[in-house]
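Run log, item B.
One chain of 386 residues. Sequence copied directly from the ordering sheet:
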Amino acid sequence: MDPSSIVPLYQPIPFPAPVWLLETLLILGFFLHALPMNVVLGGGFLSAALIFAGKENREGYLFRTGKALATALPLFISFAVTQGIVPLLFVQLLYGPAFYTSSILMAVPWLSVLLIIIVSYYLSYVVIYRYFKSEKALTASGAVQTAALLLVMSLGFALVGFLFSNNMTLMLTPAKWLSMYSQNPNGLHLNLSEGTLIPRYLHFFVASFATAGITLGLFGLYIAKRNAEFSNYMIKLGSRIYLAFTLLQVPVGFWYLKSLPPEFMHKFMGGDTIAFAIFGAAMLFTLVAVVTSAMASQSGNSKAYILSLISNAVIILLMIINRHQLRVWHMNSFNLNPNNVPVSTQWDLLITFVLSAVALIVYLVWLCKLVAKAYAPKDGEALPNT
């Protein structure tokens, strides 16, 4: 059966803005979501490991680094959830016929995402207010319990990412839809038979540890003038974590590339000039990130660290663009093209959206400054004793 024959049609409603603008906002929105999301996913596991490893010495650098990261997680979670709404809305708008169908097929696990996020978010606050702000944090058993809670929280967010990967891959494979619905129409499906599912998921999962690691260096920069020794420690540790998981990410990334349909893999290898250029640029920045993070991991050099931090952000953006190109190729293969939908630009709503976006950015900058001031560490501390 021709997959395009079972893909629903777009609703007879014109898009409120040009497709190129909607796609740009989708990419930028997902980029702003991916940064804190990676810190949350990888940071939860890392903070659990650091706190557990440092449980015998709560004044040691390992425990204090894990505590600093765990204390910051609720803030990163709030940013990740808020920014995650934007790309999800644009995916629904641009590729609704595919997205809604796949969401119906896996309705039960898809709806459970909300519950998992709520519970995991709650656990991040339990760690702070039940442990870090009580005498339990002063005992080894309390540290073990804290690490266990962080691990459960992290597994919850990891499950959310896995369910998203299931939906995002299922929407690209309409040839499966009819047989899946015929087998069970109750919305209990996952896309476990998809060959790209595991490498695609691991491509994000491994990257989250690298991003969380490089974020530790930001904590180090933050206290550089107050505690140079601890600052240097966190820059080195964060750079080492980043370097290790970035090197691990390379074979995982090529596994994901190899798992793609041959015609799409060929595009990244030179068959499509733009896709190849973006992919090549990502590899170049990966090389820069590896070299500079290796330098920072040995010397704690702040300039090398900052260069690796910037390179990582650029890599994430370039990979997101490649990811979007892959989605477009899949959609075109079964004739689902948003460019065929009429456009009736609603300038009043568009202007309101732009002004609101600018206001939000100004507010977030102010909020970050306010939080930074509130969490200004005392001498010898990574963060105040929360």
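Observations after the first pass:
- The first helix runs from residue 19 to 53.
- Residues 210 and 245 are 5 Å apart (CA to CA).
Flagged for discussion on Thursday.
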